[in-house]
Amino acid sequence: MKSVKKQVTLYDTTLRDGSQGEEISFTVEDKLRISEKLDELGIDYIEAGWPSSNPKDLEYFQKARSLKLRHAKIAAFGATRHPSKTPTKDDNLKALLEAETAVVTIFGKSWDLHVHDALKVGLAQNLELIADSLEFLKKRVGEVIYDAEHFFDGFKANPEYAMKTLQAAREGGADLLVLCDTNGGTLPDEVERVFRQVARMMPGAYGIHCHNDCEVAVANSLAAVRAGAVQIHGTINGFGERCGNANLVSIIPNLQLKMGIEAVPGKGLTRLQEVSHFVNELANLKPDTHQPYVGQSAFAHKGGIHVSAVMKNPKTYEHVAPEAVGNRRRILLSDLAGTSNILQKAREFGLDLDRQDPLVKQLVKDLKELENQGYEFEGAEASFEILMKKAMGRYKPFFRLIGFRVLDEKPTHDDPPHAEATIQVEVDGQQEHTAALGKGPVNALDNALRKALERFFPQIGEVRLLDYKVRVLPSGSGTGSKVRVLIESGDGHSKWGTVGVHENIIQASWMALVDSLEYKLMKDPKGRRKKPSSVRT
After folding, report:
1. pLDDT confidence of residue 532
2. What is the pLDDT of residues 306-320, one digit of tens each?
3. Is 374 left (phi over 0), alpha (psi -120 to 50) or beta?
């Protein structure tokens, strides 16, 4: 079967433009792993860096030659030659060739303001820089892409000259001209209008490269596609300098699910959330909960009326199926919950609960009352599962607290504080009495509890506290106010959230800690279990 050329290709610049974002720094190994993940997603081009700008990018290009990419082409990025050098003497252009990539992308000035104020050369000389740089590269590289930097600002200021820069690039041999909204200040209607005007004045293939300074980089990219763009530049999660670049994680499903344009092949779309979170993880950034399509809250339903409708027909409150982008539907628990929320959570927990069962109404009532007291179960579904099973008589605690004592001592002004917790618990009639130190009172209590229980339940050693949040609940009681403690735990296979509320922060923390460990035991009851032969003190 004859292959069909894609209508729009995806050009990812996470590793170059994206890495210019504040707080983002990728190691060489990070960049190699992200390259492989982008290839698996189905990205067509990976702009991996500027080989002449730093040793890290140079090392990447050397190591990238051993990558076994099945779909994507690696592109090296650079600028037109220096005004004082010929192409053969220009270090930047030579570094691009030494990267040995299948594609080279260079940018040049389209805005006369930049030519005068930034580059400080004449308008005619700038055209020469563009043309002979591209001619030099095209004779030595299979595919050369030209980024027309600041094109939309340049076109609005001096359309005749902006078009001359494109003509110079085309005459130099560029395979594709990319119109860049580098300052991110252009709106979608302008992008579409200018794109169509440019295509009429000089027909040919064009791409789009947008920044997000007006929060419309995705909309601008789609507007350019409507106007005939054949390539979209962007980054995963919209990473980039200032306010970021066009977010490919939103562009890809918009193209494929909304506009009927194939963006990634096969089942690539279903890996979208995985790739988004993977890149966040390597960037050491927490995923945006509310990010469209892939955020944890993108398909979360809280209001009882919404939940009831979604359970009957998901289309009532979901614009696409969450599974299409690798996400899932979440039913939240709060004071806005109704019967449908409780029934859906019961199904998720594997519990058989009938709508007519009086227990359902009681659980709704209990949930609303607990939320009124300050509990929050949206991020603590493990605590709610335990609560639900207790109400149904299907839960047996794994241990009983006899008592604990927590000391937090600072002997002198110059000494650091010391925290120690002593705890006594009972498991199947056997008592364990032990103590532990910690960096603070809650950490000491956590350490003591684990120390006491691991003799009975070694699987507790797998549990790690991933996040710990404390919020003072408004009451006007000052330091005597209630606090809510939210804990996120994980064991390397899954994550779960638990909650505790009390005027005493230690007690609130204890409640969340107990639920965290009991949830692990509830899900993993067959872990190795030993009983000590005698009480340990």
Report:
1. 46
2. 877 887 888 898 899
3. left
The proportion of the chain whose per-residue pLDDT surpasses 90, expressed as a percent, equals: 66
| Residue linked to tokens 């609005």 | 156
Question: Which structure tokens are listed for 260?
Answer: 């009927």
How many angstroms separate the CA atoms of 362 and 499, rounded? 20
With a CB cutoff of 8 Å and minimum separation 6, the contacts of 396 are none
Yes or no: say if 198 and 192 are a contact pair by the CB < 8 Å rule. Answer: no
* Spatial CB neighbours of 13, under 8 Å, sequence gap ≥ 6: 47, 77, 209, 233, 234, 235, 245
Give CA–CA dist 338/309, Å, rounded: 12
User: Given this structure, which CATH class describes domain 400-523?
Assistant: alpha beta
Per-domain boundaries in the chain:
9-265, 300-391, 400-523
Q: Which CATH number fits domain 9-265: 3.30.470.10, 3.40.50.170, 3.20.20.70, 3.40.50.1220?
A: 3.20.20.70
What average pLDDT does the segment 130-137 reach?
Answer: 98
Q: How far apart are the first and last CA of the chain?
A: 76
- Rounded distance between C-alpha atoms, residue 520 and residue 495, angstroms: 10
For 240-395, strand residue ranges (E) read 300-301, 330-331
40-91 pLDDT, tens digit per residue, is 999 999 999 999 778 889 899 999 999 999 999 999 999 999 999 999 999 9
DSSP letter (8 states) at residue 487: E
Name the DSSP class of 82: P
**C-alpha dihedral (431, 436, 438, 442), degrees to nearest 10:** 20
